Recover the amino acids of this structure.
């Protein structure tokens, strides 16, 4: 039983084993009694009919008990495999993955398509403003445009950028204030 470290898997394995053993014993007893009674009382007309009935009884009974028990044992195995996989995931260091994600985000911050830059510059030119710098936060679809040393939050839409208020997006505001401090 050391194979199963998960309580549910152990329980299902024991139940499956119990169903299989009890089923095997019950069917064997039933077949024995059927065979002995059929000889004694001559239930069936011929030897072939008696043999056919006993084979059918064995086949159907073993199938129902056997499949039920094996299904429980298979469920126990599946739960144990998932439990072991979950344990391995908990043991692996997540710091390495977090560092890789941060590096990927920093690479994304640097990249802004030329068409998106053109949209932003063109949008502010229509308003009569000149964009000094475009900062790309790690939030997809948003940029921060610096105009006359004042930050403006802009959502990049498919057709035209939209000016937004920083108060409605506290996560981006926090990120920007942390970036401007460093």
């Amino acid at each position: 039983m050391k194979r199963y470290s998960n309580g549910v898997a152990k329980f299902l394995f024991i139940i499956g084993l119990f169903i299989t053993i009890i089923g095997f014993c019950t069917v064997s007893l039933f077949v024995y009694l059927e065979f002995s009674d059929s000889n004694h009382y001559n239930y069936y007309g011929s030897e072939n009919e008696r043999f056919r009935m006993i084979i059918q009884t064995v086949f159907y009974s073993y199938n129902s008990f056997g499949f039920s028990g094996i299904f429980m044992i298979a469920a126990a195995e599946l739960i144990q495999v998932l439990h072991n996989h979950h344990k391995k995931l908990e043991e692996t260091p997540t710091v390495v993955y977090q560092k890789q994600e941060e590096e990927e985000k920093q690479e994304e911050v640097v990249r802004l398509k030329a068409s998106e830059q053109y949209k932003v510059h063109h949008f502010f030119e229509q308003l009569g403003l000149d964009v000094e710098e475009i900062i790309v936060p790690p939030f997809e679809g948003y940029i921060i445009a610096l105009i006359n040393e004042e930050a403006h939050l802009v959502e990049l839409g498919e057709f035209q950028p939209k000016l937004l208020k920083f108060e409605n997006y506290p996560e981006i505001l926090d990120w920007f204030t942390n970036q401007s401090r460093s």
The radius of gyration is 36 Å. The chain is about 65% helix and 10% strand.
